[in-house]
Design goal:
Rossmann fold, transferase, 2 domains, alpha/beta, Glycosyl transferases group 1, 359 residues, transferase activity, 14 strands, six-stranded parallel β-sheet, single chain
Length: 359
Protein backbone atom coordinates (compact mmCIF):
# COMPACT_ATOMS: atom_id res chain seq x y z
CA UNK A 1 0.00 0.00 0.00
CA UNK A 2 1.27 3.46 -0.92
CA UNK A 3 0.39 6.42 1.30
CA UNK A 4 0.99 10.10 0.53
CA UNK A 5 1.03 12.45 3.51
CA UNK A 6 0.21 16.05 2.54
CA UNK A 7 1.30 18.17 5.48
CA UNK A 8 0.85 21.78 6.58
CA UNK A 9 3.48 24.37 7.50
CA UNK A 10 2.85 24.06 11.25
CA UNK A 11 6.07 22.62 12.63
CA UNK A 12 4.75 20.81 15.69
CA UNK A 13 1.82 19.16 13.91
CA UNK A 14 4.05 18.19 10.99
CA UNK A 15 6.59 16.59 13.33
CA UNK A 16 4.25 14.68 15.64
CA UNK A 17 1.37 13.82 13.31
CA UNK A 18 3.09 13.31 9.93
CA UNK A 19 6.89 13.15 9.76
CA UNK A 20 7.55 10.98 12.81
CA UNK A 21 4.60 8.63 12.15
CA UNK A 22 5.91 8.17 8.59
CA UNK A 23 9.38 7.38 9.92
CA UNK A 24 8.02 4.94 12.52
CA UNK A 25 5.84 3.09 10.00
CA UNK A 26 8.69 2.73 7.53
CA UNK A 27 11.12 1.54 10.21
CA UNK A 28 8.57 -0.99 11.50
CA UNK A 29 8.39 -2.71 8.12
CA UNK A 30 4.60 -2.87 8.02
CA UNK A 31 4.25 -3.20 4.26
CA UNK A 32 3.37 0.46 3.78
CA UNK A 33 5.32 2.84 1.58
CA UNK A 34 4.99 6.41 2.84
CA UNK A 35 5.83 9.67 1.06
CA UNK A 36 5.70 13.09 2.72
CA UNK A 37 5.27 16.45 1.03
CA UNK A 38 3.83 19.91 1.60
CA UNK A 39 0.41 20.10 -0.02
CA UNK A 40 -0.64 18.44 -3.28
CA UNK A 41 0.17 18.83 -6.95
CA UNK A 42 -2.85 20.36 -8.64
CA UNK A 43 -3.99 21.91 -11.88
CA UNK A 44 -6.01 25.11 -11.46
CA UNK A 45 -8.28 26.51 -14.14
CA UNK A 46 -11.33 28.70 -14.58
CA UNK A 47 -14.71 27.16 -13.93
CA UNK A 48 -16.44 26.82 -17.35
CA UNK A 49 -19.64 27.98 -15.71
CA UNK A 50 -17.90 31.14 -14.47
CA UNK A 51 -14.95 31.93 -16.78
CA UNK A 52 -14.34 35.31 -15.17
CA UNK A 53 -14.39 33.91 -11.65
CA UNK A 54 -11.53 32.64 -9.51
CA UNK A 55 -9.48 29.63 -10.51
CA UNK A 56 -10.65 26.29 -9.14
CA UNK A 57 -8.96 22.91 -8.72
CA UNK A 58 -9.55 20.90 -11.88
CA UNK A 59 -7.03 18.08 -11.34
CA UNK A 60 -5.09 16.65 -8.42
CA UNK A 61 -2.17 14.23 -8.66
CA UNK A 62 -2.27 11.33 -6.18
CA UNK A 63 1.23 10.31 -7.34
CA UNK A 64 0.30 6.65 -7.38
CA UNK A 65 -0.90 6.62 -3.77
CA UNK A 66 -3.69 4.34 -2.60
CA UNK A 67 -4.31 6.66 0.36
CA UNK A 68 -3.76 10.41 0.65
CA UNK A 69 -3.70 12.00 4.10
CA UNK A 70 -4.69 15.67 4.28
CA UNK A 71 -3.42 17.39 7.41
CA UNK A 72 -5.65 20.16 8.77
CA UNK A 73 -7.47 20.89 5.49
CA UNK A 74 -9.11 24.30 5.93
CA UNK A 75 -9.70 25.68 2.41
CA UNK A 76 -12.28 25.19 -0.30
CA UNK A 77 -9.46 24.07 -2.57
CA UNK A 78 -8.52 21.24 -0.21
CA UNK A 79 -12.16 20.14 -0.09
CA UNK A 80 -12.14 20.08 -3.90
CA UNK A 81 -8.95 18.01 -3.80
CA UNK A 82 -10.57 15.52 -1.44
CA UNK A 83 -13.53 15.03 -3.76
CA UNK A 84 -11.37 14.72 -6.88
CA UNK A 85 -9.13 12.15 -5.23
CA UNK A 86 -12.11 10.05 -4.15
CA UNK A 87 -13.48 10.23 -7.70
CA UNK A 88 -10.21 8.61 -8.79
CA UNK A 89 -10.73 5.79 -6.30
CA UNK A 90 -8.07 7.14 -3.93
CA UNK A 91 -8.89 6.95 -0.23
CA UNK A 92 -8.63 10.22 1.69
CA UNK A 93 -7.79 10.52 5.38
CA UNK A 94 -8.23 13.83 7.18
CA UNK A 95 -5.83 14.32 10.10
CA UNK A 96 -6.88 16.80 12.81
CA UNK A 97 -5.26 17.48 16.17
CA UNK A 98 -7.31 20.45 17.46
CA UNK A 99 -10.99 21.37 17.81
CA UNK A 100 -10.77 24.19 15.29
CA UNK A 101 -14.25 25.65 15.80
CA UNK A 102 -13.82 25.83 19.58
CA UNK A 103 -10.75 28.11 19.61
CA UNK A 104 -11.59 30.62 22.37
CA UNK A 105 -11.79 34.41 21.95
CA UNK A 106 -8.42 35.89 22.79
CA UNK A 107 -6.58 33.09 20.96
CA UNK A 108 -4.73 34.52 17.97
CA UNK A 109 -6.47 32.01 15.65
CA UNK A 110 -10.03 32.73 16.80
CA UNK A 111 -10.90 35.32 14.15
CA UNK A 112 -9.82 33.16 11.21
CA UNK A 113 -10.99 29.79 12.45
CA UNK A 114 -14.25 30.75 14.13
CA UNK A 115 -15.44 34.17 13.00
CA UNK A 116 -14.44 33.69 9.35
CA UNK A 117 -15.63 30.09 9.26
CA UNK A 118 -12.39 28.41 8.25
CA UNK A 119 -12.82 25.77 10.95
CA UNK A 120 -16.17 24.76 9.45
CA UNK A 121 -14.45 23.86 6.18
CA UNK A 122 -12.28 21.44 8.13
CA UNK A 123 -15.44 19.91 9.60
CA UNK A 124 -16.84 19.40 6.10
CA UNK A 125 -13.60 17.75 4.98
CA UNK A 126 -13.76 15.46 7.99
CA UNK A 127 -17.35 14.44 7.22
CA UNK A 128 -16.55 13.59 3.60
CA UNK A 129 -13.24 11.81 4.25
CA UNK A 130 -12.95 8.03 4.14
CA UNK A 131 -11.46 8.17 7.63
CA UNK A 132 -10.49 10.79 10.20
CA UNK A 133 -7.44 10.40 12.46
CA UNK A 134 -7.30 12.44 15.66
CA UNK A 135 -5.10 12.65 18.73
CA UNK A 136 -7.74 12.37 21.49
CA UNK A 137 -11.08 10.61 22.19
CA UNK A 138 -12.84 13.96 22.58
CA UNK A 139 -11.72 15.01 19.10
CA UNK A 140 -13.11 11.75 17.76
CA UNK A 141 -16.50 12.71 19.20
CA UNK A 142 -16.30 16.03 17.37
CA UNK A 143 -14.95 14.91 14.00
CA UNK A 144 -15.59 11.24 13.45
CA UNK A 145 -18.02 8.53 14.40
CA UNK A 146 -16.40 5.35 15.71
CA UNK A 147 -16.65 3.66 12.29
CA UNK A 148 -15.49 6.83 10.54
CA UNK A 149 -12.49 7.76 12.68
CA UNK A 150 -9.76 6.54 14.97
CA UNK A 151 -7.58 7.89 17.76
CA UNK A 152 -3.82 7.70 17.35
CA UNK A 153 -2.34 9.33 20.46
CA UNK A 154 0.71 11.52 20.33
CA UNK A 155 3.99 9.81 21.07
CA UNK A 156 7.69 10.67 21.37
CA UNK A 157 10.55 9.38 19.19
CA UNK A 158 12.96 7.12 21.09
CA UNK A 159 15.91 9.36 20.16
CA UNK A 160 14.28 12.19 22.16
CA UNK A 161 13.33 10.08 25.16
CA UNK A 162 16.85 8.66 25.36
CA UNK A 163 18.60 12.05 25.56
CA UNK A 164 20.33 12.72 28.91
CA UNK A 165 17.42 13.42 31.28
CA UNK A 166 17.03 16.63 33.25
CA UNK A 167 17.00 14.82 36.60
CA UNK A 168 20.66 13.88 36.21
CA UNK A 169 21.58 17.52 36.90
CA UNK A 170 21.96 18.97 40.38
CA UNK A 171 21.34 22.71 39.85
CA UNK A 172 21.87 25.30 42.54
CA UNK A 173 18.90 27.22 41.11
CA UNK A 174 15.94 25.12 39.95
CA UNK A 175 14.31 26.32 36.73
CA UNK A 176 10.52 26.09 36.65
CA UNK A 177 9.53 26.21 33.00
CA UNK A 178 6.56 26.51 30.69
CA UNK A 179 6.60 26.06 26.91
CA UNK A 180 4.30 28.09 24.70
CA UNK A 181 3.05 31.52 23.77
CA UNK A 182 0.54 33.56 25.75
CA UNK A 183 -1.01 34.44 22.37
CA UNK A 184 -2.13 30.85 21.82
CA UNK A 185 -2.76 30.12 25.52
CA UNK A 186 -4.57 33.31 26.58
CA UNK A 187 -6.23 31.78 29.65
CA UNK A 188 -4.05 28.87 30.67
CA UNK A 189 -1.26 30.29 32.81
CA UNK A 190 -3.85 31.96 35.06
CA UNK A 191 -5.02 28.50 36.17
CA UNK A 192 -2.11 28.55 38.61
CA UNK A 193 -3.38 31.86 40.05
CA UNK A 194 -1.04 32.76 42.95
CA UNK A 195 0.38 29.24 43.21
CA UNK A 196 3.49 29.86 41.15
CA UNK A 197 4.41 33.07 42.96
CA UNK A 198 3.82 31.37 46.32
CA UNK A 199 6.29 28.67 45.33
CA UNK A 200 8.82 31.22 44.09
CA UNK A 201 8.50 33.11 47.39
CA UNK A 202 8.98 29.96 49.46
CA UNK A 203 12.08 28.99 47.48
CA UNK A 204 13.53 32.47 46.90
CA UNK A 205 17.12 32.30 45.71
CA UNK A 206 16.74 28.62 44.80
CA UNK A 207 14.24 28.85 41.94
CA UNK A 208 13.30 30.91 38.91
CA UNK A 209 10.52 30.88 36.29
CA UNK A 210 11.30 30.57 32.58
CA UNK A 211 9.24 30.52 29.37
CA UNK A 212 10.45 28.67 26.30
CA UNK A 213 8.52 30.51 23.62
CA UNK A 214 6.90 33.94 23.90
CA UNK A 215 6.53 35.30 27.41
CA UNK A 216 4.11 38.09 26.44
CA UNK A 217 2.34 39.49 29.50
CA UNK A 218 2.89 36.39 31.63
CA UNK A 219 4.19 38.49 34.52
CA UNK A 220 0.96 40.49 34.60
CA UNK A 221 -1.27 37.44 34.21
CA UNK A 222 0.45 35.63 37.07
CA UNK A 223 1.11 38.75 39.17
CA UNK A 224 4.75 37.76 39.42
CA UNK A 225 7.26 39.83 41.35
CA UNK A 226 9.92 39.39 38.66
CA UNK A 227 9.80 39.18 34.89
CA UNK A 228 10.15 35.56 33.72
CA UNK A 229 13.22 34.54 31.79
CA UNK A 230 12.51 33.98 28.10
CA UNK A 231 14.13 31.47 25.77
CA UNK A 232 13.14 32.25 22.16
CA UNK A 233 11.04 29.60 20.48
CA UNK A 234 13.06 26.87 18.78
CA UNK A 235 11.47 25.89 15.46
CA UNK A 236 13.43 22.65 15.06
CA UNK A 237 11.45 20.15 17.14
CA UNK A 238 14.45 18.01 18.00
CA UNK A 239 16.25 21.14 19.18
CA UNK A 240 13.18 22.24 21.11
CA UNK A 241 12.87 18.84 22.78
CA UNK A 242 16.53 18.84 23.71
CA UNK A 243 16.22 22.35 25.19
CA UNK A 244 13.36 21.29 27.49
CA UNK A 245 15.61 18.81 29.24
CA UNK A 246 18.66 21.06 29.17
CA UNK A 247 16.95 24.17 30.54
CA UNK A 248 14.03 23.00 32.74
CA UNK A 249 14.03 21.08 36.01
CA UNK A 250 10.31 21.45 36.75
CA UNK A 251 7.69 21.86 34.04
CA UNK A 252 4.23 23.36 34.50
CA UNK A 253 1.27 22.52 32.28
CA UNK A 254 -1.74 24.64 33.32
CA UNK A 255 -4.85 24.36 31.15
CA UNK A 256 -8.18 26.11 31.51
CA UNK A 257 -10.85 23.40 31.35
CA UNK A 258 -12.93 24.46 28.34
CA UNK A 259 -14.20 22.87 25.13
CA UNK A 260 -11.01 23.61 23.18
CA UNK A 261 -8.63 22.35 25.86
CA UNK A 262 -10.76 19.31 26.67
CA UNK A 263 -9.89 18.09 23.17
CA UNK A 264 -6.18 18.86 23.41
CA UNK A 265 -3.57 16.14 23.48
CA UNK A 266 -1.38 15.16 26.40
CA UNK A 267 1.71 16.24 24.43
CA UNK A 268 3.14 18.92 26.76
CA UNK A 269 3.22 16.60 29.79
CA UNK A 270 4.56 13.81 27.57
CA UNK A 271 7.40 16.06 26.37
CA UNK A 272 8.35 17.06 29.90
CA UNK A 273 8.24 13.46 31.09
CA UNK A 274 10.28 12.16 28.16
CA UNK A 275 13.03 14.64 29.00
CA UNK A 276 13.14 13.80 32.69
CA UNK A 277 11.50 17.05 33.77
CA UNK A 278 9.21 16.76 36.80
CA UNK A 279 5.77 18.05 35.80
CA UNK A 280 2.91 19.76 37.62
CA UNK A 281 -0.26 19.89 35.52
CA UNK A 282 -3.96 20.67 35.42
CA UNK A 283 -6.53 17.85 35.74
CA UNK A 284 -7.58 17.88 32.09
CA UNK A 285 -9.12 14.68 30.74
CA UNK A 286 -6.11 13.88 28.58
CA UNK A 287 -3.55 14.59 31.30
CA UNK A 288 -5.56 12.35 33.60
CA UNK A 289 -5.70 9.64 30.94
CA UNK A 290 -1.94 9.81 30.49
CA UNK A 291 -1.48 9.50 34.24
CA UNK A 292 1.87 11.31 34.38
CA UNK A 293 2.73 14.42 36.35
CA UNK A 294 1.46 15.85 39.63
CA UNK A 295 -2.20 16.94 39.51
CA UNK A 296 -2.92 20.50 40.66
CA UNK A 297 -6.43 21.97 40.94
CA UNK A 298 -6.05 24.93 43.29
CA UNK A 299 -3.33 27.55 43.84
CA UNK A 300 -2.15 25.75 46.96
CA UNK A 301 -1.72 22.53 44.93
CA UNK A 302 0.57 24.31 42.48
CA UNK A 303 2.47 26.00 45.31
CA UNK A 304 2.90 22.77 47.28
CA UNK A 305 4.05 20.63 44.36
CA UNK A 306 6.44 23.19 42.88
CA UNK A 307 7.91 24.05 46.27
CA UNK A 308 8.49 20.43 47.17
CA UNK A 309 10.11 19.77 43.80
CA UNK A 310 12.57 22.61 44.45
CA UNK A 311 13.24 21.76 48.10
CA UNK A 312 13.42 17.96 47.77
CA UNK A 313 15.59 17.07 44.77
CA UNK A 314 15.56 13.35 45.58
CA UNK A 315 11.74 13.31 45.37
CA UNK A 316 11.82 15.37 42.18
CA UNK A 317 14.32 12.99 40.61
CA UNK A 318 12.36 9.89 41.68
CA UNK A 319 9.10 11.20 40.24
CA UNK A 320 10.68 12.39 36.99
CA UNK A 321 12.59 9.14 36.46
CA UNK A 322 9.44 7.06 36.97
CA UNK A 323 7.52 9.18 34.44
CA UNK A 324 10.31 8.89 31.89
CA UNK A 325 10.33 5.10 32.27
CA UNK A 326 6.61 5.06 31.48
CA UNK A 327 7.24 7.06 28.30
CA UNK A 328 9.95 4.62 27.23
CA UNK A 329 7.68 1.64 27.96
CA UNK A 330 4.41 2.88 26.42
CA UNK A 331 4.50 6.18 24.59
CA UNK A 332 7.11 6.06 21.83
CA UNK A 333 6.35 6.46 18.14
CA UNK A 334 7.33 2.84 17.63
CA UNK A 335 4.36 1.94 19.85
CA UNK A 336 1.89 3.83 17.65
CA UNK A 337 3.26 2.83 14.22
CA UNK A 338 0.79 -0.02 13.76
CA UNK A 339 -2.10 2.28 14.75
CA UNK A 340 -1.20 4.65 11.91
CA UNK A 341 -0.81 1.83 9.39
CA UNK A 342 -4.11 0.26 10.49
CA UNK A 343 -5.90 3.60 10.09
CA UNK A 344 -4.63 4.02 6.53
CA UNK A 345 -5.66 0.45 5.67
CA UNK A 346 -9.15 1.14 7.05
CA UNK A 347 -9.44 4.22 4.88
CA UNK A 348 -8.49 2.21 1.79
CA UNK A 349 -11.06 -0.45 2.67
CA UNK A 350 -13.73 2.21 3.28
CA UNK A 351 -13.07 3.76 -0.13
CA UNK A 352 -13.19 0.38 -1.88
CA UNK A 353 -16.51 -0.35 -0.19
CA UNK A 354 -17.93 3.05 -1.11
CA UNK A 355 -16.86 2.60 -4.76
CA UNK A 356 -18.49 -0.85 -4.93
CA UNK A 357 -21.74 0.45 -3.48
CA UNK A 358 -21.70 3.42 -5.85
CA UNK A 359 -21.01 1.30 -8.90
Amino acid sequence: MNVLLAHTVFTGSLFHRMAEPARAVLEAGLGVEVALQHGLRTVMASDPADPDGPLVVREVDAQGADVVVLQLPKTREMLDCLRLLQAQGVAVVVELDDHLTAVPPGHRGHDLLVRRGVGRIAETCAREADLVTVSTPRLLQEYGRREHGTVVPNAIPRRVAELPPAYERQPDVVTIGWTGSVGTHPYDLQEMESGLQQALDRTAGRSRFCVLGQVGNARELLRLTDEPLEIPWIMDVDGYSAAIGERFDVGVAPLRIDTFNNCKSWLKVLEYSARGVFCVRSPSAEYERLGLGYRAKRPRDWATAISRAVEDPDWRHEQAAAAREQVLARHLTEHTAELWAAAWRRARDNRSRADRLGA
